[in-house]
Amino acid sequence: MTSVLQAHELGKRYGKRWALRECTIDIPAGHVVGLVGPNGAGKTTLLKLAAGQLEPTSGGITVLGGRPAAGPAQLARVGFVAQDTPAYAGLTVAEHLRLGARLNPRWDAAMARERIARLGLAPNQRAGKLSGGQRAQLALTLGLAKRPELLILDEPVASLDPLARREFLQSLMEATVEHELSVVLSSHLISDLERICDYLVVLVESRVQIAGETDRLLATHHRLTGPRRAPDRLPAGQHVVCARHTDRQSTYVVRTDAPVHDPAWTVTRLSLEDLVLAYMDKPAAADRRALLEVQR
């Protein structure tokens, strides 16, 4: 399967502090990928490395088979919308489009103008006077009009109200289908990822905890609730993601390809939020890292 982003032992350090360390990931093409994790996990650093805005301290990264920002041709293949949906406050909407045309060799001027008209943005209005939702839509338009093969979005709707967020995500979904884009989107808002993403990556402390198609992940994860039971008494094919115990009861989130048949357990399906939170559970993540270290 073709990859849009591959990283091996990737790291970025600022002085003595590692913002990203030993990150290995392989994101396939043709998906809308949700990248999620706690603050400080390295999501923004990873996306900026992929966009060529940062140089790695260690390890390697390729995007669409090439080195990020290796030249004009490579830059033209990747669109990037940063967390604060940047725009130049003193420039008008029309001036942003003219700037985009000058900087991007594959610029689709007709598409940009049509999107701006459909969104009801006045070409002569300065970006500093736009609402947060309008600035986000302008930034998305600039990213799409590049005609990229990969669109990277870093928390693009974090500061928007619910209506503006819904309109932005609807525009993104329509553009993804129309232009056959691969998309990598980071967000803390799991409900948004559930609406638009068909592939999930959970990043905790620079390490990929889980990655895969969302339907497949949800089908192979279960919550088990029943009488208190030690994890070593679970079937061999059930891999514990996280566990909670009281004096009399155990609750496990497990990953397994086999059906779960045990009359002692109540088996329930997970929501995407349940799945993400299970892998972000710090004690469980620490246990998995310790196990990996033993196995090396």
N-to-C series of helices and strands: EEEHEHEHHHEHEHEEHEEEEHH
**Rg (CA only):** 21 Å
Q: Provide the structure class.
A: alpha/beta
Determine and state the CATH class of the largest domain.
Answer: Alpha Beta
Approximate helicity band: 25-40%
How many domain modules? 2
The CATH architecture of the largest domain can be given as 3-Layer(aba) Sandwich
How large is the count of helical segments?
Answer: 10
Q: Could you list the spans in which at least 5 consecutive residues all have pLDDT below 50?
A: 283-296
Q: Indicate the overall shape.
A: elongated
Kindly identify the CATH topology of the largest domain: Rossmann fold
Distance between the termini: 27 Å
Q: What name goes with the CATH superfamily of the largest domain?
A: P-loop containing nucleotide triphosphate hydrolases
Blueprint (SSEs and pairs):
Blueprint: E1 3-14, E2 17-28, E3 32-36, H1 43-51, E4 58-63, H2 72-76, E5 78-81, H3 93-103, H4 109-119, H5 132-145, E6 150-154, H6 162-179, E7 182-186, H7 190-196, E8 199-204, E9 207-213, H8 214-219, E10 221-227, E11 239-245, E12 249-255, E13 266-269, H9 272-280, H10 282-295
Parallel strand pairs: 3-7, 3-8, 5-6, 6-7
Antiparallel strand pairs: 1-2, 1-4, 8-9, 10-12, 10-13, 11-12
Give an account of the 3D structure.
- With 296 residues, this protein is of the alpha/beta class.
- It has 2 domains: 3-212, 3-Layer(aba) Sandwich (Rossmann fold), CATH 3.40.50.300; 220-295, no CATH class.
- Helix content is 35%, strand content 29%.
- The chain contains 10 helices and 13 strands.
- A 6-stranded mixed beta sheet has the order 5-6-7-3-8-9, sandwiched between helices. A 4-stranded antiparallel beta sheet has the order 11-12-10-13. Strands 2-1-4 form a 3-stranded antiparallel beta sheet, with helices on one face.
- A hairpin with a 2-residue loop joins strand 8 (199-204) and strand 9 (207-213).
- The chain is elongated and about 65 Å long.
- The chain starts with a strand and ends with a helix.
- The relative contact order is 0.13.
